[in-house]
Amino acid sequence: MVLFYLILGFFLFFLQHLLPFPANLRLDLLTLFMVFVSLRADFSVAVLLALLFGFILDCYGLAPLGLQAGLLLTAVVATAVLRRHLNFLYILPQITGVAVIMLVQGLVMVGLLHLLLPVPIASTAMLRQVVLQLGVTALSTPIILGLFNLLEKGWRRFWLRKSPRTTGEG
Amino acid sequence: MSKKIDDVGRRRVHVLVILAISILLIFTLISASLRDPHPLKPLEFMVVKATAPIFNLFHESVAIVSRVWRGYIYLVGVQAENERLKMQTQESLSKEALYQETLLEKERLRQLLEFKNQAALPVTGARIIGFDFSIWFKCAFLDKGANDGIKWGMPVINAAGVVGRIVEVYPDYAKVLLLIDRTSAVDAIVQRNRLRGILNGVGANRCFLRYIHKNQDVQVGDVVLASGLGGVFPRGMVLGTVTAVDKKVPGLFQEVEVEPAADYTRLEEVLVVKTVQSVLSKP
């Protein structure tokens, strides 16, 4: 399954970069991907993927290396904590959970940027964008997570059918 | 029972160790990348070199799909009007839609070329292949780099005006800090009355012209130009147009909102000015 997560992650990474940003509306696909991986895979796998994709994202951005990795790691840890209190199988907990995760990510980002950059980064316009992104991402969570689920099921079915039988023959 | 508790405890320690190592790694990365030049540059180069071609490929495929899609949308209207004709000429119409798209692209490039000749600046054309993932920063990725003569600090423009400046150069790619980024600041003048200020990005698709005293005259519709001071942007390049003026804000200065000349939502081809020398040299 790690291969599936890697392929899906890379696909989302490229897709995210190509999504235009009219009206400053952005869907944080990689955070949703990290939530999905945290719910489905082992904690160490989720952490490794968060570090890997975070590092690649940082190479393409203006932020210092490690910042996006920190945000994705926040998503992994927050999911691990929240899944004890919220059942991510249902729509409402999914939306609430992702909203909380993105809120925590926003706070971490503001805190780190405040420490690292000489320019104050959190303007009203910027915060409006963050809130919009949070809203759009949280509301689309059930659809996106459902889609990831379907893809994972398809992947499992495909590989189970393709894998050679090793026992029970002859 | 006690074995189960042991397992849970061991697992918890395992998780905590992974988490501690990850956090340590992240802080090491952050502190290393704050140095200039940072020691992880070669690794960053490698990642970009390995992933950027896929990026380019993705970009091209999306462009083709969007061209076909736009062509199809165009055809929907025709289909509603005349079903029979659409059936007969679908193939030729879709070709026409693609042709139209090529024509539009040619027109855009012609405008850029005309602008290039007018401006009489040594420039090189480049395509934007991606934008910054994070909404906290505004930067774009170009498909040209050091191998095409692009250097740190070079201004990036298009037919409408200034787009930004180069902040990172890779062998075949370059990173552009857009004018709308919060860390971007350009010395600017108002065309009508030569008032000087600093044009700052705000992170959203607009900028603010700062340090204009409240008793100075700035009006909505005024054009803001690059002053040429600092040597980064060519003097007289259009930066944007004033869209709002607020003198009621507290403090000495008025708040002047400027809409950038370049439309960042439709940015595709740009020009990199190659000779303008910045007084800010990269250490």
Describe this structure in words.
In chain A, 75% of the residues lie in helices and 0% in strands. Chain A contains 6 helices and no strands. Chain A is globular, with a radius of gyration of 17 Å. With 283 residues, chain B is α+β, with helices and mostly antiparallel strands. Chain B has a domain at 123-273: Rod shape-determining protein MreC, domain 1 (Thrombin, subunit H, Beta Barrel), CATH 2.40.10.340. In chain B, 39% of the residues lie in helices and 24% in strands. Chain B has 3 helices and 12 strands, in the order H-H-H-E-E-E-E-E-E-E-E-E-E-E-E. The mean pLDDT of chain B is 80.
Brief rundown of the structure:
The complex is a heterodimer of chains A (170) and B (283). By secondary structure, chain A is an all-alpha fold.
CATH top level assignment of the domain at 123-273 in chain B: Mainly Beta
Helix content of chain A: over 70%
Average pLDDT reading of chain B: 80
Sketch the major β-sheet of chain B. 6 strands, antiparallel, barrel
Euclidean distance between termini CA atoms of chain B:
63 Å
The helix/strand order of chain B is HHHEEEEEEEEEEEE
Average pLDDT metric of chain A? 84
The oligomeric state of the chains shown is: heterodimer
Which architecture of the domain at 123-273 in chain B per CATH? Beta Barrel
Report the total helices of chain A: 6
Percent of residues in beta strands of chain A: under 5%
What is Rg of chain B? 25 Å
Rg of chain A over CA atoms, rounded to whole Å, is 17 Å
Class derived from helix and strand content of chain B? alpha+beta
Helix content of chain B: 25-40%
